Amino acid sequence: EVPVVESGGGLVQPGESLRLSCEDSLPTFSTYAISWVRQAPGKGLEWVSSISPTSNYIIYSDAVKGRFTASRDNAKKTVYLQLNSLKTEDTAMYYCTRAAHNDALTAPRGQGTQVTVSS
User: Fold this and answer.
1) What is the dihedral of CA 109, 102, 32, 67, to 10 degrees?
2) Where on the phi/psi map is residue 42: left (φ > 0), alpha (ψ -120 to 50), or beta?
3) Residue pair 38/48 in contact by the 8 Å Cβ criterion
4) How far apart are CA 117 and CA 13, in angstroms?
5) Could you tell me where the beta strands, DSSP code E, fall in the chain?
6) Tens-of-pLDDT digits for all 119 residues of the chain?
Protein backbone atom coordinates (compact mmCIF):
# COMPACT_ATOMS: atom_id res chain seq x y z
CA GLU A 1 0.00 0.00 0.00
CA VAL A 2 1.31 3.44 -0.90
CA PRO A 3 1.96 5.33 2.33
CA VAL A 4 0.77 8.81 3.16
CA VAL A 5 3.41 11.54 3.40
CA GLU A 6 3.48 14.00 6.27
CA SER A 7 5.29 17.33 6.16
CA GLY A 8 5.37 20.76 7.75
CA GLY A 9 6.98 20.06 11.08
CA GLY A 10 9.76 22.14 12.55
CA LEU A 11 11.25 23.84 15.58
CA VAL A 12 9.15 26.66 17.03
CA GLN A 13 8.84 28.56 20.28
CA PRO A 14 5.89 28.22 22.66
CA GLY A 15 2.88 30.13 21.41
CA GLU A 16 3.85 29.88 17.77
CA SER A 17 2.08 28.00 14.99
CA LEU A 18 2.73 25.35 12.37
CA ARG A 19 0.67 23.75 9.63
CA LEU A 20 1.16 20.08 8.98
CA SER A 21 0.18 18.41 5.72
CA CYS A 22 -0.70 14.83 4.96
CA GLU A 23 -0.53 14.01 1.28
CA ASP A 24 -2.22 10.91 -0.08
CA SER A 25 -2.29 9.36 -3.51
CA LEU A 26 -5.07 6.82 -3.46
CA PRO A 27 -7.92 7.49 -5.90
CA THR A 28 -10.39 6.67 -3.11
CA PHE A 29 -9.06 9.42 -0.82
CA SER A 30 -12.41 11.18 -0.58
CA THR A 31 -14.10 8.06 0.83
CA TYR A 32 -12.25 7.54 4.10
CA ALA A 33 -11.46 9.38 7.28
CA ILE A 34 -7.99 10.59 8.15
CA SER A 35 -6.63 10.75 11.66
CA TRP A 36 -3.61 12.40 13.19
CA VAL A 37 -1.68 10.72 15.95
CA ARG A 38 1.54 11.70 17.69
CA GLN A 39 4.29 10.18 19.72
CA ALA A 40 6.30 12.21 22.18
CA PRO A 41 9.81 11.12 23.15
CA GLY A 42 9.63 8.15 25.50
CA LYS A 43 5.84 7.97 25.38
CA GLY A 44 3.21 5.93 23.60
CA LEU A 45 1.19 6.82 20.57
CA GLU A 46 -1.54 9.39 21.25
CA TRP A 47 -4.57 10.14 19.10
CA VAL A 48 -4.88 13.84 18.18
CA SER A 49 -7.69 14.40 15.67
CA SER A 50 -9.88 12.74 13.08
CA ILE A 51 -11.69 14.20 10.08
CA SER A 52 -14.46 12.49 8.15
CA PRO A 53 -14.38 12.10 4.35
CA THR A 54 -16.51 15.19 3.71
CA SER A 55 -15.19 17.20 6.68
CA ASN A 56 -18.61 17.28 8.32
CA TYR A 57 -17.32 15.50 11.40
CA ILE A 58 -14.06 16.58 13.02
CA ILE A 59 -12.99 15.61 16.50
CA TYR A 60 -10.02 16.44 18.70
CA SER A 61 -8.40 15.16 21.83
CA ASP A 62 -8.87 17.26 24.93
CA ALA A 63 -5.15 18.05 24.87
CA VAL A 64 -5.39 19.95 21.58
CA LYS A 65 -9.04 21.05 21.39
CA GLY A 66 -9.29 24.77 20.75
CA ARG A 67 -5.70 25.02 19.53
CA PHE A 68 -5.49 22.59 16.60
CA THR A 69 -7.70 22.61 13.52
CA ALA A 70 -7.99 19.81 10.99
CA SER A 71 -9.14 20.33 7.43
CA ARG A 72 -8.94 18.53 4.12
CA ASP A 73 -8.90 19.26 0.42
CA ASN A 74 -10.16 16.19 -1.38
CA ALA A 75 -9.23 17.60 -4.78
CA LYS A 76 -5.60 17.79 -3.64
CA LYS A 77 -5.83 14.55 -1.62
CA THR A 78 -4.37 16.41 1.32
CA VAL A 79 -5.32 16.79 4.95
CA TYR A 80 -4.01 19.65 7.05
CA LEU A 81 -3.52 20.11 10.75
CA GLN A 82 -3.13 23.71 11.87
CA LEU A 83 -1.28 23.86 15.17
CA ASN A 84 -1.74 27.12 17.07
CA SER A 85 -0.65 28.22 20.54
CA LEU A 86 1.90 25.44 20.63
CA LYS A 87 3.13 24.20 23.98
CA THR A 88 6.29 22.34 24.90
CA GLU A 89 4.16 19.28 25.58
CA ASP A 90 3.12 19.25 21.92
CA THR A 91 6.64 18.18 21.01
CA ALA A 92 6.27 14.87 19.20
CA MET A 93 6.48 13.05 15.92
CA TYR A 94 3.18 13.58 14.15
CA TYR A 95 1.68 10.97 11.84
CA CYS A 96 -1.44 10.77 9.75
CA THR A 97 -3.32 7.55 9.12
CA ARG A 98 -6.03 6.34 6.79
CA ALA A 99 -8.35 5.60 9.65
CA ALA A 100 -11.16 6.90 11.77
CA HIS A 101 -10.72 7.60 15.45
CA ASN A 102 -11.27 4.06 16.67
CA ASP A 103 -8.57 2.58 14.45
CA ALA A 104 -6.12 5.47 14.38
CA LEU A 105 -3.60 4.02 16.81
CA THR A 106 -3.25 0.73 14.98
CA ALA A 107 -3.49 1.80 11.34
CA PRO A 108 -0.36 2.03 9.17
CA ARG A 109 1.38 5.40 9.35
CA GLY A 110 3.68 7.42 7.15
CA GLN A 111 7.20 8.45 8.11
CA GLY A 112 5.91 11.29 10.25
CA THR A 113 6.95 14.90 10.68
CA GLN A 114 8.73 16.17 13.78
CA VAL A 115 7.30 19.06 15.77
CA THR A 116 9.57 20.52 18.43
CA VAL A 117 8.35 23.30 20.69
CA SER A 118 11.11 24.83 22.74
CA SER A 119 12.19 28.20 24.03
Assistant:
1) -80
2) left
3) yes
4) 5
5) 5-7, 10-12, 18-23, 34-39, 45-51, 58-60, 68-73, 78-83, 92-97, 113-117
6) 789 999 999 999 999 999 999 999 999 999 999 999 999 999 999 999 999 999 999 999 999 999 999 999 999 999 999 999 999 999 999 999 999 999 999 999 889 999 999 99
